[in-house]
Structure formats: structure tokens, C-alpha cells
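Expect chain and fold; see below:
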Amino acid sequence: MIFFSILTNFLYKFFIIFIVLICIIFCASMLSIVERKFLAYFQNRIGPNRVGWNGWLQLLADGIKILFKEDWIPPFSDQYIFCIAPLISFLTLLFVLFTIPIKKNFFIVDLNIGILFFFMMTSISVYGILLAGWSSQNKYSLLGAIRASAQMLSYEIFLGLSTMGVIAQSGSFNLIKIINSQKIIWNVIPQFFGFITFFIAILAICHRHPFDQPESEQELSDGYHIEYSGMKFGMFFIGEYISMITGASMITILFFGGGNGPIFPEYVWFILKTFFCILFFILCRASLPRPKYIHVMKFSWRICLPLTLLNLFFTAFFILYFKK
């Protein structure tokens, strides 16, 4: 009887994880079409409009194209690492989504160290890009991988520092407790500079425009994934949109009160806020020019890092003053 109960519980959790996984991959895939539609709208041009009603079946055409493309592995590459790299890039930030509480009682894993787990997986994600660039034995791939590593090391420092004010106010690393601490006022107001720097760091870690120098087409011909094709390229492609969803979800939880909101259910508010953040990512891509790589690095160390330190200093001062 006990064995049957354990087995039923295991199968139920496995079924939930499977459904959530399918939903995440489908949403990440659809996001590629949504992005192209909004980019066309923002830039006053025609987007995808040939496949299906108003172009909304373009995803199906892209999927068939990727599935039937030759999955070529360069003979001069380190083949084992070449195959492992896209898998690392695809899975790392996907695992973070399993810890995201869409509702206060709807999550797969409730970690007391939710934010630390997010930092850990973002740090690991750069290994997928680094290994892809190194194993491809291509100078453009290697340059893109080096750029991604340096960018990641620079921006993850103030990614962590920008959340310290939120953690200090809530007194916990647990994502649900951080949401509960924002019942009166969202963190975006008292932690506005923390929010700005966190948003910039998320753009850089996701390699979203204007921080897409590791794969800039004009200089590096797609950078670290230039030698990839077929499903391996598809894993890099979908992985980028999964990282967008993860980043937008973390912004929603840390600075916009998660699912807190009037009238509508919590999951509706959570989805609306996350989608709004993703739209802002797309708007940045549509409107901002790509700066030189050296300017990106200077911006992180000379502007963002001092700003996060000042924000942390004033947050600590106010907490100590009012507690006293």
C-alpha cells in the first residue's frame, strides 16, 4: 500500500514536470514568432506573413526546416564537447523555471535558496557557450566564446549585488517569501536602481541586443554557434528564448510582486507581468543600436557596478535606521 502511494505520487510529479516542460518549450518556440511580429510592428515593416493565417504558422515551417536539416559535426572539431555544449546551454536556465512560483502554492520545487540557485545556473550557462566556441576549432567561434565569458564575468557581479537590497528587505533567499514581502509596495519603487541594473544584467546574460556581441553577425558571423546546424543550433536558439522567459520571471518575482494584484487570479498577473518584461526586451532590440564591445565592458565596471554598490549602501542604511 505504501509502495503504491509512493509510486502514484512519483508518477503524478513526473506528469506535472513533463507538462510544464512541454509548455515552456512551446512558449519559448512561439516567442520567436511573437518577437518577429513585434519587431516588424516597432520598425514599421512587414514581418512573417506567408505561412498560415497572417504568418502565425511560421513556427511550424521553421520546426520542419530544423528537423530535416543535416546535423553536421565538423571533422576538425572536438566532437564530444561539440555535442555536449548546446545541451548545457539549453538546460541550465530551463532548470531555474522549475523553482519559479507562478502562484504561492503552484511550483515544482520550493527552494530556500531560490535566488542562489538562479545565480548558480546562470554561472554554469556560460560553459555551454565557452565549450561550443572552443570545440568548434573556428577563430570566429572562439572570439565569440571569449566575448561571452568576459561579458558574463563582468555582468554577473552586479547581477548579484543588485538583488542584495531585495534580499535584505525580505530577509530571505526564498522566492515565495520575497513575493510575500511585497504585499504593501513592490520592490521596484524602493529598489529602483537595483531594478535598472538587474534588468541590464539580465539582458547581458541572455545575450540580448544591445549585448549580443558574442554572436554579432557583422563582425563574427554568428560567433560561437557558427559551426552548428540542425537540432544542435535549434537548442541554442530555443535556449535563448528560455533564458528570456527565466529572466523576465525573475524580474517579476523580485521587483513586481510576483502574482500579487487585484481582481484577477495570481497566475494571470504573473503571466501579464512576465510578458510585459519580455515585450520590453523586444523593444530594446528594436530601438537601440549595438555599441562597441569595449563600451559594453566599460559600462559594466564604470557605471553599473558603482550604482549597485551605492544602492546597497543606502538600503543597508535605511534598514538599520528604521530598525533602530
